[in-house]
Design brief:
Blueprint (H helix, E strand, L loop, with lengths): L3 H23 L8 H23 L7 E5 L7 H5 L4 E6 L2 H10 L6 E4 L13 E6 L9 H14 E12 L4 H8 L4 H4 L18 H10 L2 E8 L7 E8 L2
Parallel strand pairs: 1-2, 1-4, 2-3, 4-5
Antiparallel strand pairs: 5-7, 6-7
Helix pairs in contact: 1-4
Length: 242
């Protein structure tokens, strides 16, 4: 089932965020980023995120291709390139993709424009590793999460793996903000451009995420806590059957 209205709202919202303050809306730890710092901290973070999952999955990335879903400006790409030979990213926002091509220091990176629910431009069985971080909890509904999981399975080569961060449940503040959008000005440092449900999006319990991945043909599926300090955030990992 296609969601053209929702996808249009996501694109418009993330274009507006890219125009207003792209680096802040990608990483809200600072309101003002210098590009060198933004990409260098992304490099360090990518290494921290990837290494444990690759070890857990017994996956050797040497010579392989990674696709990051919701890549923004390619903040993590330098770190990805220390593991993988090819680094691809896909994003729903044309403005993010345009700025990524200008700013990302990884010259060999490939950026694709997605439609908000499919891995547009990615062929079947063409990616070794699908990765997504701080993205799925911005999707407005569970149906879009399901669509992306199906697309991950389609895009992975046999034996390829995925690593996707998800959110099990929203805080009371997040749930309230979703119901009363005007509260965003109180609970965030900056007003969030675009519809609030493209920022404070859907959540999915770990058991539901595992069942969804297995339904789409992934095996060795696991969920585990993102970080002991991260509350309800968790990783979903799995492998496409050979």
């Amino acid at each position: 089932m296609r969601h053209p209205g929702v996808n249009r709202r996501m694109r418009e919202a993330w274009d507006a965020r890219a125009q207003a303050n792209a680096m802040y809306y990608i990483d809200t730890r600072r309101e003002v980023w210098q590009p060198d710092t933004f990409f260098e901290e992304g490099r360090i973070e990518a290494r921290r995120l990837l290494a444990p999952a690759l070890e857990r999955l017994h996956f050797d990335p040497t010579g392989r291709r990674i696709l990051e879903i919701g890549c923004g400006l390619g903040r993590l790409f330098l770190g990805h390139s220390e593991f993988f030979r090819e680094v691809w990213g896909i994003d729903v926002s044309p403005e993010m993709v345009r700025r990524a091509r200008e700013l990302c220091p990884l010259e060999a990176a490939r950026f694709l424009l997605g439609d908000g629910e499919a891995l547009t431009g990615v062929d079947d069985a063409s990616v070794d590793y699908c990765f997504s971080y701080l993205v799925f909890h911005h999707l407005p509904n569970e149906a879009l999460i399901a669509s992306y999981v199906a697309e991950i399975s389609r895009a992975l080569i046999p034996g390829g793996c995925c690593q996707v961060q998800m959110l099990a449940r929203r805080s009371w503040r997040g749930r309230l903000t979703r119901r009363v959008p005007g509260l965003q000005r109180i609970v965030t440092r900056q007003p969030i451009p675009g519809d609030i449900d493209t920022w404070v999006g859907a959540s999915l319990e770990p058991g539901e995420a595992r069942a969804l991945a297995e339904k789409e043909g992934l095996i060795d599926v696991e969920t585990y806590p993102f970080d002991v300090q991260a509350g309800p955030a968790y990783w979903l990992v799995g492998r496409k059957r050979v």
